[in-house]
Write a structure and sequence with these properties.
- The structure holds two protein chains of two kinds.
- By secondary structure, chain A is an alpha/beta fold.
- Chain A is 38% helix and 12% strand.
- Chain A has two domains: 3-86, Methylated DNA-protein cysteine methyltransferase domain (Double Stranded RNA Binding Domain); 104-181, Winged helix-like DNA-binding domain superfamily/Winged helix DNA-binding domain (Arc Repressor Mutant, subunit A).
- Chain A contains seven helices and six strands; from the N terminus they run αβββαβααβααβα.
- In chain A, the strands form two sheets. In chain A, strands 3-2-1-4 form a four-stranded mixed sheet, covered by helices on one side. Chain A has a two-stranded parallel ribbon with strand order 5-6.
- In chain A, strand 2 (34-38) and strand 3 form a beta hairpin.
- In chain A, helix 4 crosses helix 6 (137-145) and helix 5 crosses helix 6.
- In chain A, 32% of the residues are buried.
- The model of chain A has no long low-confidence stretch (mean pLDDT 94).
- Chain B is mainly α.
- Helix content of chain B is 70%, strand content 0%.
- Chain B has helices at 7-45, 55-76, 98-105, 109-120, 125-132, 136-154.
- In chain B, helix 4 (109-120) crosses helix 5.
- The model of chain B has no long low-confidence stretch (mean pLDDT 80).
- The chains are: A alpha/beta, B mainly alpha.
- The A-B interface holds A 1, 3, 5-7, 9-10, 13-14, 17, 19, 21-22, 24, 57-58, 60-62, 65-70 and B 3-9, 11, 15-16, 19, 28, 31-32, 35-36, 39-40, 43-44, 46-47.
Chain lengths: 191, 155
């Protein structure tokens, strides 16, 4: 019996026994490889192409549970919806989310962001107000920057008042690309 | 105290050594089941493991326990056969019998692993050392001590 076959059997059994606290996989995207991680409650972490996947996994082991295993089949639905989104064929994710990596004000900001419809944008100020503290604009910006579930929780739809792009964890070209995909920004040839 | 790495890392780094030791200890047929039981037991206990200092030693200890359980279960459930063949077994080419396995199973963990890896998996001393996380000399010493004890037990 080859070790890989035995490992696959072990993971199936672990999932059946409810021991897969964090299942993860990597997925291709037009911007580069993504890391997708979910708990039994839902999607808990999306790692963007410019982030170090090993570091993200170590962080999940420390903050969620050390029972972290690569289990691609567990994330089939997440991958399917992301593929459709990148193909411009999905304007609303229907995935259970696990918010445990953000608390308090940050989580309120992220939940407000999660309600911004496809193809629309909001300002950091509006997000601060929706989260209950209009003056905490800087904190709302920090909440966007620390979004553990980017893409699905669409922090790329939050811009500076006046329309400047602001920042993005995955880099500004990616934010620009996502807004072009959603038809918010015109595709601008690189100057 | 070292914080616990993602379990996937543990699997990536140590699954081959665990499989090699189990194949040595219980043979190819039993190794797969023992492998499942070893890693399931490890995954169940993992979050409560205080220290990530010696994960390989921890896993090998679990594997040894599962191998002993396997031999005990086999001892209790002899395979039924229609007719018991009376075959004289020549000294030196004997099938590994229950008494021998029980004696191997009773060795201290490192000696047991060294014997299993040397005679079960046919590994050289440096690879036994690598699997056990010790030097080839220490592997040789464990093997020597293990064999000495087996000769005494089975004499």
């Amino acid at each position: 019996m080859k070790t890989e076959t035995a490992i696959d059997r072990f993971k199936t059994q672990a999932a059946e026994e409810g021991l897969l606290d964090v299942a993860y996989t990597t997925a291709d995207s037009p911007f580069g490889p993504l890391l997708l991680a979910q708990t039994k409650r839902g999607l808990v972490r999306v790692g963007l192409p410019n982030q170090d996947q090993d570091e993200l996994l170590v962080d999940l082991a420390a903050r969620v549970s050390p029972r972290v295993l690569e289990a691609p089949a567990q994330l089939d639905e997440v991958r399917r919806e992301l593929d459709l989104y990148f193909a411009g064929k999905l304007d609303r994710f229907d995935l259970p989310l696990d918010w445990q990596l953000s608390g308090g004000f940050r989580q309120r900001v992220l939940r407000a962001i999660n309600r911004i419809p496809y193809g629309q944008t909001r300002s950091y100020t509006e997000m601060a107000r929706k989260a209950g503290n209009e003056r905490a604009v800087r904190a709302a910006g920090t909440a966007c920057g620390s979004n553990p579930i980017p893409l699905v929780v669409p922090c790329h739809r939050v811009l500076r008042t006046g329309g400047a792009l602001g920042g993005y964890g995955g880099g500004l070209p990616m934010k620009q690309g996502l807004l072009e995909l959603e038809g918010v920004l015109d595709e601008s040839p690189a100057s | 105290m070292t914080s616990l790495p993602p379990f996937q890392t543990v699997l990536d780094e140590h699954s081959a050594a665990v499989m090699a030791i189990l194949q040595g200890a219980v043979g190819r047929d039993g190794a797969d089941d023992c492998f499942q039981e070893t890693f399931l037991a490890a995954l169940r206990a993992y979050p409560k493991l205080g220290d990530a200092g010696n994960l390989r030693g921890w896993l090998l200890t679990i594997a040894h326990r599962k191998a002993i359980d396997h031999h005990r279960a086999r001892g209790r459930n002899p395979v039924p056969v229609a007719e018991v063949a009376e075959v004289a077994v020549e000294d030196g080419i004997a099938e590994p019998d229950e008494r021998l396995w029980a004696a191997v199973g009773a060795l201290p963990p490192k000696q047991r692993a060294a014997v299993a890896l040397r005679y079960g998996s046919d590994l050289p001393h440096n690879e036994i050392g690598a699997a056990l996380g010790c030097s080839p000399e220490a592997a040789r010493r464990n093997l020597h001590e293990g064999l000495k004890r087996l000769r005494k037990e089975l004499a």
